[in-house]
Amino acid sequence: VQLVESGGGSVQSGGSLRLSCVASGYTDSYYCMGWFRQAPGKEREGVAVIDSDGVTAYSDSVKGRFTISQDVAKKTVYLQMNSLKPEDTGVYYCAIDRAGSSRRMLITRYGDYWGQGTQVTVSS
């Protein structure tokens, strides 16, 4: 299984970015796919997760600003990030959990497969 993220970049505070993650080689019908981020010197944190049934979970810090969506047929997950803040800066990773729930994956930050990450930088 391979996860490839794209869409990162640099933006000013208040701007928007859209991340994409494509999963190839994953054949199970059920999954949780999520976005996690890690800032320098900080632990990796859950941002948003969606399962193949469309159930979502968000961290409190991004609720109302970020939206996770998916194309199930393409095994692709998107993260629309609006009203970006400098504290959103970090490397954003995509992951898949083959079982469980969106909420559990968000909290445990567990993934069976991980992408390489894409950098998001928000300047003030």
Write the layout of secondary structure elements.
Layout: E1 2-6, E2 9-12, E3 17-24, E4 32-38, E5 45-51, E6 56-58, E7 66-71, E8 76-81, E9 90-97, H1 102-108, E10 113-114, E11 118-123
Parallel strand pairs: 2-11
Antiparallel strand pairs: 1-3, 3-8, 4-5, 4-9, 5-6, 7-8, 9-10, 9-11
Dominant shape: globular
Helical residue percent? under 10%
Q: Classify the beta-strand content into a percent band.
A: over 45%
Total strands: 11
Kindly name the structural category.
mainly beta
**Average pLDDT for all residues:** 97
Measured on Cα atoms, how large is the radius of gyration? Answer: 13 Å
Helix count, DSSP H or I runs of 4 or more residues: 1
Give a short account of the largest sheet. Answer: 7 strands, mixed
SSE succession: EEEEEEEEEHEE
- Report how far apart the termini are: 37 Å
Uncertain residue segments: none
Describe the structure.
The chain has 124 residues and is mainly beta. The strands form 2 sheets. Strands 2, 4, 5, 6, 9, 10 and 11 form a 7-stranded mixed sheet that branches. Strands 1-3-8-7 form a 4-stranded antiparallel sheet, with no helix packed on it. β5 and β6 form a beta hairpin. The protein is globular. The chain is built from 1 helix and 11 strands.
